[in-house]
Specification:
With about 375 residues, the protein is α/β, with parallel strands linked by helices. Helix content is about 35%, strand content about 15%. It has 15 helices and 13 strands. Helix 8 packs across helix 13 and helix 11 packs across helix 14. It starts with about 20 loop residues before the first strand and ends with a helix.
Length: about 375
């Protein structure tokens, strides 16, 4: 799966922050991911800005995307996010000696602590995908339970709070994350939902406009907290085939589980965007039994008129309308999810698509433009 086409669109009118020296900052840049898409959408709004990141994965066209990588990219630490985490606060303070008028960071770890100028002369804004789950919520995401993180976790929490005092304004990708910012950092934030290419996904592939929806669908990174094993159990209980799309370290384990399923489980490894759209349009429902900060995949599914059956936690509480665009379930028992599968026939695909339009790239661009202009658009 690639995200490069999913960048936002510049707002019409005069260039935002024209004549100002601007930097747009992001953590590590992977080949797939919602946070990367948001970063590119922000960068599209500020085309004259420098794009600064920690490092880019090997299959990312960093030069084509004008990504300027930190010195961490030249060290072995780039191959281990867990091991590199303690070094990140230092990296963000030694990123460059250049000074900027405005800095907009896209952060899910420590990027919000970047300081590229005195706060009296530099406006620092930060869009937060989540406070670093590795250090604040290790039980939420098992990747944060690395043994080497246990001792420095409290130190990193203290540094995370101490080093963000220069930030003038925060935006959160959801109410869920807005609450974490308040709880962990004691800071306020406005909510600006991420941009989703609802127009693209809502345009049905010609070959599938009249195709019956005969399988369940799961999409995302194959990592433990996404609960793809639960999806297989749900499909088993519902008696329907399942398509699992994505990639990740759980692939071998998931294939072993699928081999013992009573229903057919098909794996689609790293499908391109056109294939993803076909999968959404052909699915009876998207399964999403995961606690996400926001979750762009459920919105993409709804743009195709495909209902979502997911966990009643996190971003799904904002993106899915209970009994209208899908069903949300407490807990991870496959039974209630399977029951919901058999109730989706009463949902209106038109209502589902209309709801998805609330999360369009255009709406994100306008809200981000207004926020940046309000915080940093005044005189130098």
């Amino acid at each position: 799966m690639t995200i490069y086409q999913a960048s936002g669109h510049p707002a019409p009118g005069p260039a935002l922050l024209a004549g100002r020296k601007v930097a747009v900052v992001h953590e590590w840049f992977g080949a797939t991911g919602g946070s990367e898409a948001v970063f590119l959408a922000i960068a599209d709004l500020l085309p004259h800005a420098q794009r600064l990141i920690l490092w880019a994965d090997e299959d990312v066209p960093a030069d084509e995307l004008h990504l300027r990588q930190s010195w961490l990219a030249r060290t072995p630490l780039k191959y281990s996010k867990a091991l590199s985490l303690p070094a990140m606060p230092l990296v963000w303070r030694t990123l460059t000696s250049e000074k900027f008028d405005v800095v907009v960071s896209s952060s899910h770890a420590f990027a919000h602590t970047v300081k590229l100028g005195d706060p009296e002369h530099t406006r620092h804004l930060s869009y937060i995908h989540s406070p670093a789950r590795y250090i604040w919520s290790p039980d939420f995401d098992g990747r944060g339970s690395h043994p080497l993180l246990k001792l420095p976790r409290s130190v990193l929490q203290s540094a995370d709070v101490r080093l963000n005092r220069h930030v003038h304004a925060y935006a959160a990708n959801s109410r869920e994350v807005q609450g974490r910012i308040k709880r962990f950092w004691k800071r306020d934030a406005v909510v600006i939902n991420p941009p989703v290419e609802v127009g693209y996904f809502g345009d049905a592939p010609a070959a599938q406009q009249h195709q019956s929806r005969d399988y369940l669908l799961g999409i995302g990174r194959w990592i433990p907290y996404k609960n793809f094993d639960v999806m297989i159990a749900i499909a088993d209980a519902a008696g329907l085939p399942l398509v699992i799309a994505g990639s990740g370290p759980e692939e071998e384990r998931l294939r072993r589980i699928a081999a013992g399923s009573r229903v057919k489980v098909t794996f689609e490894v790293r499908p391109e965007r056109d294939r993803l759209r076909e999968l959404y349009w052909g699915a009876r429902a998207l399964l999403f039994p995961a606690h996400e900060d926001f979750g762009m995949i459920p919105v993409e599914a709804q743009a195709c008129g495909t209902p979502v059956i997911g966990l009643a936690r996190g971003g799904l509480l904002e993106t899915v309308l209970q009994d209208e665009t899908g069903f949300l379930v407490d807990g991870l028992d496959p039974g209630p999810y399977a029951d919901a599968v058999h109730r989706i026939g009463g949902l209106s695909p038109d209502r589902i698509r209309t709801h998805a339009a609330e999360f369009s790239t255009g709406r994100f661009a306008q809200r981000m433009t207004d926020w940046i202009d309000d915080v940093a658009g005044g005189p130098r």
